[in-house]
Design brief:
Pfam family, one: AdoHcyase
Distance between the termini: 47 Å
Radius of gyration: 23 Å
Keywords: Hydrolase, NAD, One-carbon metabolism
Number of strands: 17
Mean pLDDT: 96
Cofactor: NAD(+)
Protein name: Adenosylhomocysteinase
Catalytic activity: S-adenosyl-L-homocysteine + H2O = L-homocysteine + adenosine
Helix content: 40-55%
Number of helices: 18
Strand order of the largest sheet: 1-2-5-4-3-6-7-8-17
């Protein structure tokens, strides 16, 4: 199907492929509402806009194409950048947001409900620029970074002995598509991704799983350009992951199912930042909440917060809601779902789709799938009982709802904006090597400070003597690097 896709152009020459450009006005109205709720990004426009620090910078973004992301994109363009964007998830695009941005400010290739083939077509279109290659990447989950690194690897093989990627060498459906895409492009453009890797000044990565990939490449010595780990900024991990999930997990469950959470038994897989916010939301909604953990420290935290700790196997028969948050794989398997009570709800709020065994479920003997509504399916086992799976095992808060609210995404995306500014400013200085970096603490504090006035907060100021007594600068940073918020 993706082979038949064509790129459209606006009257001003912007390339795009979205579901419905007629939704652009609706998207623009919601973007205007979101701007009021995103003071960090709007402050970046006010402070940096006049000097156009990103002038002549070509930025590729692979991150959920939502209303909140639209405000990030238009902040980058307000600072002088030219932008191409795709979503990092087949279900997360808000079509009215994609239409508004495509019409008004940037090239967009994204729509809700893409096939995997269409998804990788969009990713390639986002990465490949006419003329000179991209300068920087905003990534979420690492797919844009992955495609470039795999492209460089296979271009080197092709240059050496004309070997092309072989999709049959992997059982992973998505990686088959990546290899197929490269197999088709390399004979036509044998140095495309190598050129991109040389041009790229760096990537800022949004999420835990993408950061994990970056650290692995860095340790192996294969990372091709500098990277800033935005995920581990405190104003990202503790705000987006905890408070964002606290808001958007129940939102996704309730929009998809209309099932009352109060009185139910909810199981949460993992008690990291995402798990903490998720468990908090289920408990606040009146559910009895059970947590599974491998880490004794996180498990002890969960105990002290009043949660019961047990493996999933111990509560399969009576749990009502099962949510994975781990970033790992093979957390809820098909044989586990077969043991759940009728109409138990199964969902994932981690980045990828491999926490829930969707392949095993699809191939379970005698299984029957019924779509209740888009991204809400009932899978019936041969004995007649079934489970309700949300968003096909992908991010349910974005697949079934609209993801995190604007205010908390302002914290995350202000970090992204600052990271892009830093990488571009230092592109010729050698400050950033082909390694993974975290933004310094004073910038973390600045991001938090930008959001306080919106909430009516007024900070207490240290006296000179007080600052000297605890040995911190009067204006911050106020905590040592090892401090855990």
């Amino acid at each position: 199907m993706a082979a038949a896709l064509t790129v459209d152009k606006t009257s001003t020459g912007n390339e795009y492929k979205v579901k419905d450009m007629a939704q652009a006005d609706f998207g623009r109205m919601e973007i205007c509402l979101a701007e009021v709720e995103m003071p960090g990004l709007m402050s970046c426009r006010t402070e940096f806009g006049p000097t156009q620090p990103l002038k002549d910078c070509q930025i590729t973004g692979s991150l959920h194409m939502t209303i909140q992301t639209a405000v990030l994109i238009e902040t980058l363009t307000a600072l002088g950048a030219t932008v191409r964007w795709c979503s990092c998830n087949i279900f997360s695009t808000q079509d009215h947001a994609a239409a508004a941005v495509a019409r008004d400010s940037a090239a967009v290739f994204a729509w809700k409900g893409e096939t995997l083939e269409e998804y990788w077509w969009c990713t390639e279109k986002c990465i490949v620029w006419e003329g000179r290659p991209l300068d920087m990447i905003v990534d979420d989950g690492g797919d844009a970074t992955l495609l470039i690194h795999e492209g460089v690897k296979y271009e080197a093989e092709y240059a050496k002995n004309k070997t092309l990627p072989d999709p049959s060498t992997t059982d992973n459906a998505e990686f088959k598509l990546v290899l197929g895409l490269l197999k088709e492009s390399i004979p036509k453009f044998p140095t495309r991704y190598t050129d991109i890797s040389k041009s790229c000044m760096g990537v800022s990565e949004e999420t835990t799983t993408g950061v994990k990939r970056l650290y692995e490449m860095c340790a192996a010595g294969t990372l091709l350009f500098p990277a800033i780990n935005v995920n581990d900024s405190v104003t990202k991990s503790k705000f987006d992951n905890v408070y964002g999930c606290r808001h958007s997990l129940p939102d996704g469950i309730m929009r998809a199912t209309d099932v009352m959470i109060a009185g139910k038994t909810a199981w949460i897989g993992g008690f990291g930042d995402v798990g903490k916010g998720s468990a908090m939301s289920m408990k606040a909604a009146g559910a009895r909440c059970i947590v599974s953990e491998i880490d004794p420290i996180c498990a002890l935290q969960a105990c002290m917060d009043g949660y019961q700790i047990m493996p999933i196997e111990d509560c399969l028969s009576y749990g009502d809601i099962f949510i994975t948050t781990t970033g790992n794989k093979d957390i809820i398997m098909a044989d586990m779902m077969a043991k759940m009570k009728n109409n138990a709800i199964v969902g994932n709020i981690g980045h990828f789709d491999n926490e829930i065994d969707m392949i095993g479920l699809e191939n379970y003997p005698g299984i029957k799938r019924t779509q209740i509504k888009p991204q809400c399916d009932r899978w019936e086992f041969p004995d007649g009982h079934g489970v309700i799976v949300l968003a096909e095992g992908r991010l349910l808060n974005l697949g079934c709802a609209t993801g995190h609210p604007s205010f908390v995404m302002s914290c995350s995306f202000t970090n992204q904006c600052i990271a892009q500014l830093e990488l571009w400013k230092e592109r010729a200085t050698g400050k950033y090597e082909k390694k993974v970096y975290v933004l310094p603490k004073h910038l973390d504090e600045m991001v938090a400070r930008l959001h306080l006035a919106k909430l009516g907060a007024k900070l207490t100021e240290l006296t000179t003597d007080q600052a000297a007594y605890i040995n911190v600068p009067k204006g911050g940073p106020y905590k040592p690097l090892h401090y855990r918020y």
